[in-house]
Amino acid sequence: MSNDPKISIITAVYNARETIGDTLDSILGQTWPNIELIIINGASDDGTTELLEARKEHFDVYINEPDSGIYDALNKGISRASGDVVGFLHADDIFGSKQSLAHIAAVFGNPSIDAIYGDLLYVSRNKDRIIRCWRAGEYSLNRLKKGWMPPHPTFYVRRSVYDRLGMFDTSYRIAADYDCMLRFIFQGKLRCHYLPEVLVKMRLGGESNRSIQNMICKSTEDYRALKHNRVGGLTALLWKNISKIPQFFLR
């Protein structure tokens, strides 16, 4: 890879008229110039499509068609990515700063690094309050077996990793990102680098936390991912959930 890596940013969007503009502004406002912007619109019908159509001259890839959920949409984006590095910015999210991608690109200048991740802030819908601070910390195999994981919105990998280890398993409804990271980090033995800064700000209200039913589904799928990737079981799942508690008190 050159010292000028192209970063493919994939944004999957469905009915996000109120927030997609912030997301696009955040991507287009990055100081890193070598970006491939891929927008996967799941045939939104709330005005999102019209907003995207008005700005699609800024998109390198634009798909507007029904999909089978967010992981199907993200897989469509990955399959069309031509960048050296692939990452995601969801339609409720923004980057931590205008230099986020520049800092990510600098790390990937080291050919021994396969993936990087950083810290994540959960913020209120109008972005004026920090609700939760996820400081990921350094990776270790022992921590992974105790339920540790990097925040997926901050997780960037070389595109060749997807070619080698596969994309999202769409049989998961909520936890395909966790399964994917376990497959990459544990099974694929990726060399990961922790970037100790807030890379992404996420509005509170993700799919996994929308209802008690979704929270139960998430835990069930997390357990399945742990067992499938031979990382751990119920103990790891318990520690994974307990470890989130301090994030509500960090700032």
CATH T-level topology: Spore Coat Polysaccharide Biosynthesis Protein SpsA, Chain A
Structural class of the secondary structure composition?
Answer: alpha/beta
Helix content: 25-40%
Question: Would you identify the regions where 5 or more consecutive residues have pLDDT less than 50?
Answer: none
Average residue-wise pLDDT: 91
Give the CATH H-level superfamily: Spore Coat Polysaccharide Biosynthesis Protein SpsA, Chain A
At the first level of CATH, the class is Alpha Beta
Radius of gyration in whole Å, from Cα? Answer: 17 Å
Strand content: 15-25%
Distance between the termini: 36 Å
Total separate domains: 1
| CATH architecture term | Alpha-Beta Complex
Describe this entry's structure for a reader:
- The protein has helices spanning 20-28, 48-55, 70-80, 100-107, 141-145, 159-165, 176-187, 212-228, 234-242, and strands at 7-13, 35-41, 61-64, 85-88, 93-95, 115-123, 130-134, 156-158, 192-203.
- The protein is α/β, with parallel strands linked by helices.
- It has a single domain (7-248), classed as Spore Coat Polysaccharide Biosynthesis Protein SpsA, Chain A (Alpha-Beta Complex).
- Strands 1, 2, 3, 4, 5, 6, 7, 8 and 9 form a 9-stranded mixed beta sheet that branches.
- The protein contains 9 helices and 9 strands.
- The radius of gyration is 17 Å and the shape is globular.
- The longest helix is centred in the C-terminal third of the chain and has 17 residues, at 212-228.
- The N and C termini lie far apart (36 Å).
